[in-house]
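Work package 3, deliverable 3.1, input record:
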Amino acid sequence: MAQMWITMGPQHPMTHGLWTLRVKVDGETVVDTDAELGYIHRGVEKICEARDFTQITPYCDRLCYVSAMTWANSYIYAAEDLLEAEVPERAEYIRLIAAELQRLASHLMWLGAFGPDIGNLTLMTWCMRDREMFLDLLQELGGSRMHYNYPRVGGVKRDIPIGFADRMIAKVKLFERRIDEYEMMLDESTIWLVRLQGVGYANAEEMVAAGVSGPNVRAAGVNYDVRWAHPYSVYDEIDWEPSVEKPTSVKGADCYDRYRVRMEEMRQSCRMVLDAIEKIPGGKNSNYSKGDEMIFKKAPLRAPEGATGFSNYECTRGASQFYIKGGGEGRGKSPYRLSIRSPMFITIPFVAKTMIGYKVADIPAIMGSFDPCIGETDR
Amino acid sequence: MDDAYDLRGLIFSLVEKVIPPILEGTFLEESTGQITFGLATFAVVNIVFLMLFFSQFAILWIERKAVARMNDRRGATTALRSLWVGENGVTAGEWWNMLPFGLGKPVGAVNKWLNKKFGNRDEKYPTVDRVNNRSWMGYSIFPGFFQNVADGMKFLLKEHMVPQRADKLIFEVSPFLIVSSTLLILGLIPLSSGIYATNPELSILYAIAIFGIAPIGVFFAGWSSNNKYTLIGGIRSAAQLTAYEIPLLLTLLSVAVLSGTFNIVESVHFQHSAGSWNLFLMPLGAGLFLITMIAEVERVPFDMPEAEAELVEGWWTEYGGMRFGMLFMAEYIRTYAACFLFTHFFLGGWHLPFQGLIGSIPIIGDLYLLIPGAIVVLIKAWLVFLLVFVWARFSLARIRTDQILEFGWRILLPLAVFQLILSAIYRLYLFDPSAMSDSTFGGTSWDAFGILFLIPAITTAIWLGIFFLMLNDEDKSGNTERMFHVYTDKAAGTYVPGQE
C-alpha cells in the first residue's frame, strides 16, 4: 500500500503546544516520524544575560506555563549556588510545599489533557476542577494563578498567609479521595486499559541513554528521582518515597505504566505537603512579614567573575538543570551566561521515534503519556 | 393494544368529511378517494415529522444538561443524584423554593431532607466549599433549550467554503446524500399506533436499508475533500460501518424471528400481545443492538472516524457553515432514530410498564391508560439516549480502529448468530401462540408451568448472572503492588530496582 506523510501540527489537537510531528503512515500504521521543534523559541537564555538575578525569576516562570513554580525554583537554586546565598529553613519548606502543589496542578493538567487524547472528555473537566483548588492555593502565595514570581534569591517573596495551612490540608485531603475517584473511572474501564496497555513501549536503557528523565523513566523501573538521588532543599527531611513502577514487560514501560506512575506521584506529593506543613519551622499558623529573617536572607547581588552555579532539580516532567556563570564587575548585576537543560527537549524527539510501528490512533496516547510541554522545550 | 389517541384516524376521518362535498360535481369527483388520501397523508406526515424533528431538540438539551452535571467544573461527580439532591451548603432544595407563589415548596422540602440525609456535606472540610459547592443556583435549566436553535442559526450565517483541490461535485453532493437518507429514517418511526407517518409492511428492512446509505456518503465526503485526515476518517468509517452492519442486521433478524414480523408497529403489538417486552427475552440482543447502534452513529466509544485527537474532525474536517450543521444534525437524528428503534424493538414501544396489572385497577387503571402513547415512547427514547448514549460518551474512552474491528468481527458477530439461534429456539419451543391476547392485560405466551413471566424472568436472571460473572472486578490493591516501595529510612539514592 502506498505510504504518505501526514503533517500533524503546528496547530493540531495532539501536539499540546506548538510543534510539528510529521508522520509517515502505511495505512493506519506509523512507519516513520519526524519531530520539528522551535516554533516558540523566545531566546530566554539570551534575555537573561541582560537582567539581574531577581529579574530573571519571572522569565523562568514563563519557561513552562503549566509548571511555573518548579521552574522558578530550579533557577533560584542555581542562582543561590552561584551567589553562595543562605536560605532560611522555613523558606525551604515553603518552597517545597509550593513546588509540590505545583506538581499536583501540573499532573492534573497532564491528566486532563491526556483524557481527551484517549477520548474521555469528562476527565478533562474533572481535572480542571481539582486543579483549581491548587491554583487557588498558589495564588495565595504568589498573588497570581499562572506565573507566580514567588521564590527569591535567599528566600521567598512572602510568607504563607494565616489560614493557608488549614485550607491546604483540607484541599489536599479532599484531593486524595478524588484520586481514588479518578482511578474508579479509569482503571476499571476496560477500554482505558486496552488503549494504554501494550502501547508505546519505551525501554529503560534507551531512555537513559537518550537522557529522558522524570516520571517517564521511573515508569520503566529506573529509580532516578533527583529529589531522592540528590536531595536538595529539605526533601531528605520529610516523609515520602519516589514512585517507581515495576516494569511489566521486557520491552519497557507502556502508556499505562506512565499513567500509573504519575497517579502515584500525585499521591506522594499529597503526602509530602501534608508532612511538610506539620514540620515547618516557625509554625504553620504564623505569618512572618515580608523580608523577615525567617523567610528571607539577603544575598549578594553581583556574582564574582568565573564563579558558576548549577542546579539539578526535579521538575514535573523530569530533571531540569540550570547552569549560570557570573560575569564579575564587567557584567554588573547580570550573569555572563545562563543555560537551561529542559527535559522535554530531549524527550519529544525520543518519543517521536517510539511511535514507529504503532497505529495512527496511538499517536495521541503515546505523546500524551509523556506529558509534553512546549514552553520549556523551545524556551 | 392500540394507543388511545389515534391522530391518524382522526385526520383521515376529518379529511374524508370535508373533501368529498367540495369535490362533488367538479371534474375531480372521480378521483375523490385518491385526493382525500393524498391530503390526509400529507397532513399526517408533516405533523409526525415535525413532532419528531422538534422533539429532537430535547435530546440535544438532555445531553447538554446531563453532561453539564456529569463533568461539572464545580463538582457533581455523582451526577444523577446531584440533580435532585444538591450538595454542600446551597442545595437543590433552595432552587425549588425560589419558584413563585411557593409552588416548589413541597419539592424543596423533600430535597432539603434528602440533602440533609445523603448530601455530601462534610464537616471535616469546611474550607473547600468553593470547589465543592454543587447546586442548581446559577444554572439555566429551561432557558438553555433554545441554545440549539441559536447554534443552528449561527451556522446559516457562516461562509460555505470548498477546498480548492476538492472534487467539487461529490463534495457538495455527499452531505445531502447523508442528510436526506437520514431524514428518511424519521419517516417510518411510529410515535404510537395512531401517530406515524408511514407504515410499510417491511419497515424494519426499510430502516436498515436506509441506515446503509449514509456510509457511502461518508466515504465520498472523506475522499472528495482531498485531505489526508478526511481520507483516513472516511476509510475508517467505511470499515467500521461495514463491520457493525452485519451484527446489527442479525440482531434485528432475531427480533423479527422472535416477533414474527418485519413491521415495527406489529413488533410492538407482538410484545404486548405475547406478554413480555423483548428486552427480557433477549437481553443479549438488546446489548448487541445498543453496541452496534453506537458504532453505527459513530459516538464515543466508537467515534474513531472522527477522532478529534489525531484526525482533527475526521471525515467532516473540511465542511463548514450549514454543511457542517446539517451533518451534525444528521448524526443526532441517527442517534435519535436508534433510540426510537431500541424503544420499539426491546422496550415495548408505547406500552406502559405493567400496563395489564395497573390497568386492571378500577379508576387508577383507566387514568393510567389515558397517558398518551406518544409521550411514553418519547420518554423511553430520551431515557435510552440519556442512560446509554450520553452516559457512555462521557465516561468511556475511545477504542482504537483495529480493536473496534476485532471486537465487531470476532465477538459481536458470533454473539449475534448465537442470539439468532436463541430467538429461533424461543419462538419454536417456548412460545405459545394460543395465549396471545389483544386485551389491556396482554397475553401470556411466554409463561411456563402456569407461572406468570417465568421465561422472561429466567432469561433475564441468567444473562444478568453471566454479566456479573464477567465483570471481573479487579482487586484495587493491585495498583499499589505495581509500584516499587522505597522507604525513607534508606539512604537516599541507594535503592536499585529489582533487588528486593
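The first helix of chain A runs from residue 44 to 48.
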